[in-house]
Protein 1
Amino acid sequence: MAHDLLNGKKGIIFGALDNRSIAWKVAEMAHQEGARFVLTNTPAAIRMGDIHQLAMKCGNADIIPADGTQVKDLEYLFREAMKRMGGKVDFILHSIGMSMNVRKKRAYSDVDYDFFAKTLDISAISLHKILQTAFKLDAIHEGGSVVSLSYIAAQRTLYGYNDMADAKALLESITRSFGYIYGREKKVRINTISQSPTLTTAGSGVKGMQDLMDFTERMSPLGNADADECAGFCIVLFSDISRKITMQNIFHDGGFSSMGMSLRAMSMYSRSLDCEDCPPVD
Amino acid sequence: MAHDLLNGKKGIIFGALDNRSIAWKVAEMAHQEGARFVLTNTPAAIRMGDIHQLAMKCGNADIIPADGTQVKDLEYLFREAMKRMGGKVDFILHSIGMSMNVRKKRAYSDVDYDFFAKTLDISAISLHKILQTAFKLDAIHEGGSVVSLSYIAAQRTLYGYNDMADAKALLESITRSFGYIYGREKKVRINTISQSPTLTTAGSGVKGMQDLMDFTERMSPLGNADADECAGFCIVLFSDISRKITMQNIFHDGGFSSMGMSLRAMSMYSRSLDCEDCPPVD
Amino acid sequence: MAHDLLNGKKGIIFGALDNRSIAWKVAEMAHQEGARFVLTNTPAAIRMGDIHQLAMKCGNADIIPADGTQVKDLEYLFREAMKRMGGKVDFILHSIGMSMNVRKKRAYSDVDYDFFAKTLDISAISLHKILQTAFKLDAIHEGGSVVSLSYIAAQRTLYGYNDMADAKALLESITRSFGYIYGREKKVRINTISQSPTLTTAGSGVKGMQDLMDFTERMSPLGNADADECAGFCIVLFSDISRKITMQNIFHDGGFSSMGMSLRAMSMYSRSLDCEDCPPVD
Amino acid sequence: MAHDLLNGKKGIIFGALDNRSIAWKVAEMAHQEGARFVLTNTPAAIRMGDIHQLAMKCGNADIIPADGTQVKDLEYLFREAMKRMGGKVDFILHSIGMSMNVRKKRAYSDVDYDFFAKTLDISAISLHKILQTAFKLDAIHEGGSVVSLSYIAAQRTLYGYNDMADAKALLESITRSFGYIYGREKKVRINTISQSPTLTTAGSGVKGMQDLMDFTERMSPLGNADADECAGFCIVLFSDISRKITMQNIFHDGGFSSMGMSLRAMSMYSRSLDCEDCPPVD
C-alpha cells in the first residue's frame, strides 16, 4: 500500500502489545500512510510487551502510559499528546479488551460480578472515558475519527466468549450513543470494526479458538480477515475518504456475518455425521 | 392447547398440501381455537394433496381454489370467502413458495431468469397480490392479521437455497411496505415468522436438508422448532393478544438466529477436524 | 381476554410500582390467565408505590422485597418464592431500569462513572444476577420463560435517553448470552420485548417524552402500543405457545421500528418547515 | 484526494446520466485514482444524458451501450470491455434503479404488476444478470469488487418510496447470495452502499424529497452524505484496502441509520406541535 491516506494526521493508538496485536499493525500502517501518533497502553502491558520496538519502527513515536479505565490517566495522555504533537489529534484507535471471567475460566452461569464489572469497564466503558475526556479537553479535530475493534459476539452468542460478548454489545452501543453527540458537536465520527476471529495474544486465551477459526474460515467466502487486512480498513476509517460514516459497526470478516451455511463448512460437518468410527458426541 | 384464541374469527389459509405442511397444522389449530376459515391452494396442489381430508377435520371448511399469482383468482377467492363466511376475514396465512431453479438444480450462478421471475412471483409477490386484492375489496376487518412464513435465508446465505433466499428477502420487504399502508388505513397488521428448517414436502427438496437440520438442531439451544410449534405461534399472531405487532419478522427457531457457535455444534464439527481416517474434504 | 394461558403456572414479577407500571398490568393479566406469582421490588419502591393494592387484586399475592442488584436478596427471594408457591417458577418478568445520570441531568458527554456503573447494574446486570441465582438454585422449571422489557434505544440513539440506551443494549446482550446457556441446559427461554415509549412513572422522567410520543404515534401505522397491550404480549411469551422462541428481542411498537418515515409524521414536520411566523430553530 | 487507490485497475461503471449522478462522480474519482474504465448505460439514457462529456473528462473512456436487463447486451458489454481494455475487469459499479409505479404515481396499494416486475428487473435483478454474465465469461479478476447503490428503504418503510423499497431489499439479498458464490469461487467481493437521500436526477422524482432531506439532515449527526462523498467510499470498496469485506450493506449516511431521534429534528417537529396558528394536520 502506502497511499498517503493519513498525511499530516495525528493520532493516539491504544492497545499495541506485540506484533500479533491488531493495534501494532495499525501503527505500522498509519506510519507508512504519513501519520504521526502516540502509542499508549497500561504500564503493565508496556512492561510485558514490545511496544518500544514498535515505537522505533514508527519514527520514534512517543509512548505515554495510560490505563483506559482511569480518567486522570486519560486527561494526562490527551494533554501530553497534544503538547508533544503540537495540536489536537485526528484519529484514535481503541483496541482494548479483557475478561477476568474468561481468564479464570468462570462459566457464564457462574461469573464473578466484580470481574463482570471490570470486563465492561476495561473493554467498553474505557471507550466512553476516552471520548468524554477528549470531548471535555476538545482534543479531537473537527472531522476526526475514532475506531474501536469489535466482534460478532455482540450480535450472536458463541460458547466460551462469555461476558466479552456483553462487553462488545456495550461497546457498540457506546459507539452509537457518543457518535451522535460527538458528530453533532464536532463532526467527529465513531465506528467499530467487527473483525474475524484473529489469533492475537489476547485472542489466544479464548477456548477452542483454533477450531472456531477453521469453521469461520470455511464459512466465509473470502476466508478469515487477518490483522493486516483489518489494519488496512482502520486506516480507511481514519482517513478523509470515509468522513460521512459514523455510528456504524462494519463487518470486516470475509463475509462470515452474512452466511448461514457454506458448502465447505457443511462438508466438514457432514463428514463427522457420516463417521462411524468416530468417538460419540453429545 | 385450545384457549379460544380465535373465537368467532374468520380466515383464509393458503398453502396446505398434506399433513406435513405448516399450513395444515395452522388450519387444525385455528379450528381448535374457534376459527372458521376457507382453505385455498392452486388447482394442481388441490389435486395432488390431501386438502379435502383437512377440510373435513376442520368442520367441513370450504375449499376455494386460487392461484396466488393470479389477481382474478384472488378476487374470486375473497368475494366467495366473504359470501360463504358472511363477512370480512380476520386473518390470512400465506405459506407459499416454489423455485423452479431449485427444482431443476440450476446453480445460483446459472439461474434461468424466467424461473427467477416465477420464484419471486409465486413466493413473494403473491403476498402483495393477496394484500392489494383484499385492500381494494376491503376484505379484512380492522385489526385483522396477515402472517407469512419466512426463513433466515432472507438475512444470511445458505448454500443450495438459491433464489428462494432472494424471494424471502422480498417477501419480508413487502411485509413491511404493505404493513405500513394496511396498518395506517385499516389497522391490519402484517408479519412474517422466520421458522426453523422444517421437513415439509416442499422443504424436502432442498439439498443437504437433513445435515443442515442436524446443524441447526445442535446450534439452537431449544433445538429446531417443528411445524406444530410454528402453527401455535401463527395462532398468537392471528389473535388479538398481538394486535400492536406489525411489519416484523419474528424468529421462531429455538434461538438459532442469535447463535454464532454452540458447544454442541462445535463438538460435532471438531470431531471431523480430529478425524484422521476420514475421507479428505475440500 | 382470559384464555387460561397461564393456568397452573407460577411466577415472579419484578418492578411493579403503581398502576402505570407495565409490570402492574402484567400482574393483573397473569392473575386473570390463571397464574400464581410473587411480586417483588426494592424495599424503597415497595414503600413508595402501591404494590400492596396490586397484591390484593391478584388473589393476595405474596410480596417479597428484593434488590435486583443484590445476589443475597435474590437467593432469598427464589428460596422463599419456591417455598411459598410449593415449587419452581415458570416465568419471570424483569422490568427494572434506572439511571442517575438521567435523573441528575448529566449529559451523555458528562456522565458520572459511578452513576453509569449503577445504571448498568440496576438496568441490565440485574437480569444476569436473577438468572444466575435461579440457575444455581435450579429455580425455574424446564420450559420456563423469562421476559425483560427493552426499548429501541438499544439499536438507535435517541437524544436524552443517555446511558439507558447502553443499558438496554447490554440487557439484550445478556438475554442472548444467558438464553443460550439456560436454553441448552434447562430449555428455559429468555427474551426481551422492545416496547413503544410508554408513560410510566419511570418513563415520565425522560426529556421531551410527550413530543417524542407524538412523533412515534404518527410514525407507527398502528400507533404506540400501550402498557396493557405490552402486558398481553408478555403473557404470550410466558405461555407454552411460544416455547421455541428464545434469545430474541421482539418489537411491540405498532410498527415504529420498521418505519423510516410516515406520511403523518412528515406532514407534522413539514408544517414546521413551512411556518414563516414560527420562532427560529437551530 | 488522489491517492492512487485504483492504479492500473480496470472497471465498468453503470448508470452515469448527468453530473448529478453518483455514478458520474464515481467515474471522475476513479479516473483521478488511476483507473481505466468503460462507461455504460441504456441507449436511451446515453441519448438523454451527458455521458460523452463525462467520457472526455475521464481520458476518453469508452462508452458501450447496454441494457442491464438484457443478458445479450451484457455479454457484448463484457466481451467488448475486455477486448478494449485488454483483460478482465477489477471493479463494477451498479447504479441502476427505476420504478414505473413511482413515475406513474401508482400507490403501493394499487401497483401495476407488470410495472412491479419491471422495477425488480431493472433495479435489482440487473445486478444478478451482470454478475452471472461476468461469472460465465470469467470477466472479473480474482479479488475484484462489485458495488451497488442501495437505500435504507430496504430496511425501513418510507412513504412514497413504493416498490423501490422492495427492489432495494432484493438488491441487497442478491448481493449476499451472489457474494457467497463469487467470493468462494473467485474471491470477488460484492457489497452495497446505503447512501443518504441524494438529489440526483433520478431521486428528484420521489415525493416530498426536499422535506425528507431536511429531516434526514437534522437527524444525522454529520448531516446527509452527498454524491461526492459517496463516490469516495465507492473507490475505497473498489480498492485493495477493503479486500476482505463482502456481502455487506454499509451505511454511508452521516449516521442516520443509527438514529432514533435527534435534538435538532425534534426541535423542528416540536415547533409544529407548538404552533397554534398553523393549518390543521391529519
Protein 2
Amino acid sequence: MRRFVIGSARNLLHRSHQNSQFQRPLLSSSYRLLSSSPSANPSSSSSSTMAPPVALNNINPKVLECEYAVRGEIVTLAQKLQEEIKAKPESHPFEEILYCNIGNPQSLGQQPITFFREVLALCDHPAILDKSETQGLFSADSIERAWQILDQIPGRATGAYSHSQGVKGLRDAIAAGIEARDGFPADPNDIFLTDGASPAVHMMMQLLIRSEKDGILCPIPQYPLYSASIALHGGSLVPYYLDEATGWGLEVSELKKQLETARSKGITVRALVVINPGNPTGQLLAEENQKAIVEFCKQEGLVLLADEVYQENVYVPEKKFHSFKKVSRSMGYGEKDISLVSFQSVSKGYYGECGKRGGYMEITGFGADVREQIYKVASVNLCSNISGQILASLVMSPPKVGDESYESYSAERDGILSSLARRAKTLEDAFNKLEGVKCNKAEGAMYLFPRIELPEKAIKAAEAAKKAPDAYYCQRLLTATGIVFVPGSGFGQVPGTWHFRCTILPQEEKIPAVVSRLTDFHKSFMDEFRG
Amino acid sequence: MRRFVIGSARNLLHRSHQNSQFQRPLLSSSYRLLSSSPSANPSSSSSSTMAPPVALNNINPKVLECEYAVRGEIVTLAQKLQEEIKAKPESHPFEEILYCNIGNPQSLGQQPITFFREVLALCDHPAILDKSETQGLFSADSIERAWQILDQIPGRATGAYSHSQGVKGLRDAIAAGIEARDGFPADPNDIFLTDGASPAVHMMMQLLIRSEKDGILCPIPQYPLYSASIALHGGSLVPYYLDEATGWGLEVSELKKQLETARSKGITVRALVVINPGNPTGQLLAEENQKAIVEFCKQEGLVLLADEVYQENVYVPEKKFHSFKKVSRSMGYGEKDISLVSFQSVSKGYYGECGKRGGYMEITGFGADVREQIYKVASVNLCSNISGQILASLVMSPPKVGDESYESYSAERDGILSSLARRAKTLEDAFNKLEGVKCNKAEGAMYLFPRIELPEKAIKAAEAAKKAPDAYYCQRLLTATGIVFVPGSGFGQVPGTWHFRCTILPQEEKIPAVVSRLTDFHKSFMDEFRG
C-alpha cells in the first residue's frame, strides 16, 4: 500500500528537488480576462477535450511536498495493528497500542479539569442555569462564571458567529491573564482566537510567505507543523540547529550563521520560529538567551514567532517560563521595536483539551494596515468555535483562591503536572539506561527526544527496507511492542544522527510496562544487529 | 481610516491587474540548499542589512488580493455606529443596528434546538450523566444519545484529538443520515469533518490549484468565500452567470461558453462550484438541471464542488432539495464516473449553529492516492473540534418519531422553518414594492438578492464618493436606518447591474420595522436622486 509520507526515508534536511518540475507560470491572477459577457452567444461544447481527472501528477505540488510525521506512516501502521487486534486479539504480541506519538493527553486517560467542563456545559445549554437541580450538579463559581461569560456574548448566543478575532469579553479575560502572567499590559485587540494554535501559525505563514524566496528560520529539530505550513505556503524553511550537547541549546551565533547563509542564497528571511518550552526537545530557554534572541530579531528585522503552547508544562523547579513578550518589554522594547506573535493553545498545559480546538495568538508590533489584512483573512473563516474561545479564556483566568472550585481545581492541576514531571524523569532515566541511547532532560513540554546510535547492520537493514534508520527502529518497536514513537527524521536532526520522539503522556501506572517492553525490545534489537 | 477591502469600489469582475508586480521567482522550494552544516564555524553577523519590517508592500500579495464582503467595509462601519450608539444612544436616527449582512441566525435571536444543546452539554461534562439531578434537567433520549456518542469516542475522551477525518462513529451516523436522505449508500471513510464548511472549501482549493493557470468555475453572483479562497490559493476564478430573468437559472450552455473562453486563454479548469440552494440568490435547482450539470462535469473532467449547506432551508412546497450525489447516482454514475464533493455545515439549516463550527465534506470519485493527500492536509491541523463533530452527527441523525424529544424537536424545527418562509415572502414582497427594485423569490437558503435600478444622479454621487453605486446605497441605508445589507458588488453581478444581499433572519416581530424603515429610506433616496 502506498503511504502518504513522501520521502519518509529521506532526512528532513536532505530532500531531493522533487518540486522542480512544477514551475509556476508568470500570469496575472486577475480573472477579468476570463469572463465572457453573459449576453454573448454560447460557443459550442468541446466535450472531446477531457480535462485530466484529479491525480497525484496534477494536484498542487505544495500539498505533495508537505509532510506531517506526527500523524504519518507510523501512525497509519499503528491504526492498522489496532484494528487487527480488535478483530483478532491474539494476532500480535501485545494487547494494545500505546500512542506515544502525539501530545494528546486525554486520549491516554488524562481527565479534564472539572471546573472548565462545568462552565463549558453550562454555556452549551444555558437553559439549565436557572434550574434548581443545576445547583446540585455544578459548583457555584462555575454557574457564576457561565453567567459572566454569557453576558459578554451579544444576545448570550453561543451559537452565533462571533467577531472574527473572537468574543471581545473573552479577549478581555485573556489579555488580563497575559498581564497577570507577564506584568506588562496586553491589549484585547491584539488577540486573535483560533481553532487551536495551528490555524494561527498557518495565518502568519500565509501572510509572510510570498514565494520560495521568503524564508522562515525554524529550529531543527522542530514540530513538523512548521515545516508542513511553510511547504503548503510555498516558502523556504531555513533551519537552525539546537545544540543537543548543551541540552538543546539555542545559540544566537547559529541563528546568525544560518541567516547569513540563507541571505547569501538570495533568500529574504521573514521570521524566526522559537518553540519554548521546546517541541520535540523539551528544553526551557533561559531569560538571558531569550533576550539575545529578541535582540537578534530586532537587529535583523525578523518577526519573532513564539510558540509558547507549553508555557504551563515546566517540570524543573529551578527554571521558570518567561514569555517573549515579557522579555522584550523588560528590555524596554515596545510596539515600534519588535514584531512579535505569541501562540497559545488549550490543547497543552495541564488542561490538555486537544479536542476543543481552542487557542489564540497575540500579535504586537505590526502596523494597523497589516493587522487589517490579518483580520481580513480571519474573517474569511468567520470565527473560531465558541467553546474553544470560552476555554481559552478559562485557562488564562482559572479559579482563584477563595472561589468554591479553587481547591479541587488546584489539586487537579497540580496532580497532573507533578505526575507528568515524574513520568518525564522515569522515561528519561529508562532511555539513558539503553545501550547507545542518550536522552536530555525534559525541562518542559510533553516529550523526550533521545538520540540513538544504531549499529551499522541496523542501518543496512533500514536501507534494504527503504526506510530511514530511525523510522526502521520505530517500526520494529511498534510491531514488537505496540508502542508508537515518531522517528526523528520527521522533526529534523543533524545529518547522520538518529532520534525519536516519545511523549510522557501514558498514564503513570502504565509507565513501568512501557519501560520494560521498550527495554526488552531494545536489547533484542541491538543483539540482532550488533556487529 | 483605511479600510481593509481593497478595491471595494470596483466591480468584482472588473478588477485591475494589481497583482502583476508580484511575479513569482522560479526557484526550487527545497530548503536543502539553505542549510549550513551545524559544525561549520559561525559567520559574522551583518546586522547592518536590516530586512524590511512587515508592511503592505511585502506581505503575500494573495492576501491583499482576497476580499470578503460579508464582513467587509460596510460591517466595519456598522460596528463603529453600534459603538457610537452604545456610548451615546441619541447619536443616530435609530436605536440599534440590524445585521442583515450574514447568515448568523442566533445572533438575531433564533433559539438553538434544545435536544442538540442537551446532548452537547452532556458530552462536555459526562461526569453528570450518572447523577439523579440530571434526569430532571435533561430529556431521556438526550442522555441516551450522549452515552451512545461517548461510547463511539475512544476512552470517551471528548477532550482528545480524534482521527483527522473525525470520530469514526460520528462519521458512521453522518453516512447513515446521507443514505436516509438520498437512498444511495454513503461511506464513513468518505466523510471529512471540519470546523464549519469553510475549511473544507479551502482544503479542496488548496488541493486543486497549482497556479493562476488553474481555474475554478464559480457562479456569479457567488458566496465570496469562493472568490476569497481562490485568491488566497492563487488560482483563477472562472465566472459563470446565473440568469436573473429566469429566477437565477443555471444554464449549461453558459457553463460551456465560459469553460471554452477560459480554455482558449490557457486556463485549465479544474472544478465547478454549484451552490444549491443558492447563496446569495436563494434559488433551488431542478433535478433535470442538476442532471445536466453532472453530465457536463463528467464530460469535461471537472470536479463538482457542491455547496449544499442550505439543504434544509427550502421554503417552496413544490420544490425539493436533491443532493448532487443522489442525482449522479440516480443517473447510474458511481465512483469511477464523477469526482464529487458535497459540503454541509451545522451553521445553516433550521439549527443555525454558526458558533459551533461544525461541518463536513463528503468526497467521492477520487483515487486512494489523492485521498491520502487530502487526509495528510487534514492531519496537519489534527482534527476539527469535537463539539462541532458531535453536532454535525446530530443534525444528520435528529430525534425520530417515538423518541421523547421528537415532539418538541420537530415543533422547534418547523417553527423556525415556517417562520423563515414567511419572512422571506414578506421581504420579497416589500422589495418588489420599491421603485426600481425587482426581487426574485427565495426558494431556499437565507437570503434575498434584489436588483436595484439606480438613478443616474445616484450613480454620479457614488462615483464622487469613490464607491460602487450599490455600496453607496447600502452605506446610505445603514447610516439612515441601521440596517446592514451587503452590496452586490461583493458577490459579483452582471456588469452595469446593481444588487444587494439581505438575510431573512431578523426575528419575525422585527420584520415590519425593517420593511417600513427600508421603504421610507428608499423613497427619500430615490426622491433625492431622481432626475
